[in-house]
Amino acid sequence: MSTPVAVAIEEDEQANAMPTRHRGRTFALRLLSLGVVFGLWWLLTALKIWSPLILPAPSAVWRAFVQSVTTDGPRRGLAGYYLWEHLWASLQRILKGVGYAIIVGPLLGLALASFRWVRIVVEPWVGFLRALPPLGYFSLLIIWFGIDDTSKIWLLFLAAFPPITIATIVGVERVRTDRLNGARSLGASRLQVIRHITLPSALPDVLTGIRVAFGFAWTTIVAAETANGIPGIGGLAWATKKENRTDVAILCVIVIGITAVLIDAVLQRLEHRLVPWKHHA
Amino acid sequence: MNEANDAAKVAGASGSGHPLRLRALSHTYRTERGATHAVGPIDLEVAPGEFLSLLGPSGCGKTTLLQILAGFVHPSDGSVMLGDQPVSAPAADRGVVFQQSSALLPWRSVRQNVELGLQLAGANKAARRTRADAELARVGLTDFADRPVYELSGGMQQRVQIARVLANDPELLLMDEPFGALDAMTREHLQGELRHLWRTTGRTMVLITHSVEEAVALGSRVLVMSPRPGRIVFDQPSPFANSDRPLSVMLDDPDFHEECRRVRSAIEH
Description:
The complex is a heterodimer. Chain A is mainly α. Chain A folds into two domains: about 20-50; about 60-275, Orthogonal Bundle (MetI-like fold). Chain A contains eleven helices and two strands.
């Protein structure tokens, strides 16, 4: 299997197989790598090799950050909104788009995995949609749903549900035959098997699919906000090119990156809470 | 589900049970690459309360036969009757203990796993709990009732499997190498427990095993199947099922050795 979802599921399993004693060292190395990059950045700007327009100093990016959270006369934050307002606008779009995908994705995945004819008819379309770069059909969505949030939420939904659907199929198909047969020989009806065995057994994979979907949606929203995306962290990043605000552009990159990492960390925590048996099944 | 029904489920008195009858049973697996005659024809009659040990070379169709008895596989020919009911699908009257504990539900506690069958049948919470706790006591897992199953050792997980099947009060217990994945010590311990369970519950049991000693020590009747297509080539009562001696002690008994030798030669024949 080489779908992104399958890869994510496998990577996930490998990451958790890492012995604990290596984790401290890994963390230290990562901290070191962060320090080296920051040091190089500072050094390059201190040596004034390039103009600040190409590479602003860390202090300039810090000033942009301060601007983004303060008011100064007529200026309110950046592009008329505070940084957290930009971020929250993007997050809200994500939560709506992925939220709908979390409702539709598992149901569709279950239907695809359970009924052969549904699969024959629907699966190629899910595969097709998944293969498309979401921005490729964004124009269509804008024409259909307008330039406001509706088209963006549709975009996120369409980007997010295929990975969840495919992860659900993987999860349903991985359910051990013994487990299904065991329940049947304890008297479970077909519906009871789905409710008590199949769905909970597939939950770890569904959650992995949701994590993949959030990641994919996040990269998509930042790009989608190039069209009427203020407030929005992607919209802010895109707007910097008009005023050559390299400092704001770098600030946005950092904020977008940290947010992505935080979203994934929150989802991983949630996963551990919801499916503590994941690595024991 | 009404109270009387729940009460009947909980009481779970070992009824007289029904005979199991296999008539001209035969199964052929058909795949794109052709047909494989896996089992049969087999004619067999099992009286209620018998403990059948089923031996045979790898690939002889033992597991297929067990799956037919469980109702997971439809035989291509012949019939299986439990009393006057034809066996055609899995049902609560035939419990199955699998070799792998992955048959258990890792998101449920030990007790909730044992309650599954009763829950599926619609028994109320109190009745479920009473019965599950009784079965857990029977297999010595009372102290582990609230633990998640994945925290238990392999041997304990197999006990959970046995308890969840017993909680359902099946007529027939089907076991496919239930101790095959366990270490020797645990295995011997559980063999003793299984023998005790058979005597105290009076259930009809079918045990598939690779171990001749296990088959002879536990079974009241030992069956050996031929290589594929599997047929019954040896079918004799074993006198050791009613012995109180542990398996390790039995190994020193020349009579036990002689019996094992006879069974082994039937397999290698």
